Amino acid sequence: MRAGNQAYAALSQSIEKEAAEAVEHLQGTSLFLVGMMGTGKSTVGKMLGQALGYCFLDSDSLIEQLAGKSVADIFAEDGEEDFRVLETEVLQEIAPFARCVVATGGGAACKSQNWGHMQTGISIWLDGRPAMLAQRVLRDSSNDRPLVAIDGAETMSEEEIFDATVGRLEALLEARRSQYAYADLTVSLEGAGDDDAAADPATVVLRILTSLNARIRKDAKEREERKNFEIVNNDLPPSMRVVSNINQTAQDD
């Protein structure tokens, strides 16, 4: 018990340290979490928002408030297309907000217009294997997740339901992977072991903050390096001057 408490205290201290650095450089830039259902975007998003002192917004919850009914009911009564329209409307409203962590729906990344709205902030893909996600989806009940609802599930064994859910998630991930890859950062949900257990939310938050700070430092270094380029031949066309500088540097070496 004591060792566990010490480990959690160390994790909390690391989160606090990384969050303080991130806040200094983000200057209020919002964060958008993207990824499959079951990746824990809402749970992680709340913890991340708390660490940064940001507000937390869940796009699905906002859609439900706008429509006056649940996501499952929107799919059942109005269809997925109407849901996607509402999703884009909500992201458009959120886009100008500062100091927010936004958990988006699993399919939000599949629409280019949504990416346009999310470009006002930094996008982070929470990436997990379908078998891992299936455990979470089934634990939380797939009744509220129309895209993985299984007809005739009441006559199936738990193993059959699990295998069917994994299959659905694999198909969805395959269709969406290239869209998720547009995110500014990718953070793995993998746990420490070889099984399908995911990392705990606090560990994922630390991974996000660590990756975010590393990216900020990298971008800052690249900007500084670009400032150091010197135009050495004004007779060349503008597009060739940097190339000339690089070639001259290589010859000097």
Please provide a written account of the structure.
The protein starts with a helix and ends with a helix. The protein is of the alpha/beta class and 253 residues long. Mean pLDDT is 86; it is low at 239-250. It has a 5-stranded parallel sheet with strand order 2-3-1-4-5. It has helices spanning 2-26, 41-52, 59-67, 71-77, 80-94, 112-118, 130-139, 158-180, 201-227, 238-252, and strands at residues 31-34, 55-58, 100-103, 122-127, 185-188. It contains 10 helices and 5 strands, in the order αβαβαααβαβααβαα. It is globular, with a radius of gyration of 22 Å.
Number of DSSP strand runs = 5
Helix and strand pattern = HEHEHHHEHEHHEHH
Most strands sheet: 5 strands, parallel
Low-confidence stretches: 239-250
Outline of the structure:
The protein has a five-stranded parallel sheet with strand order 2-3-1-4-5.
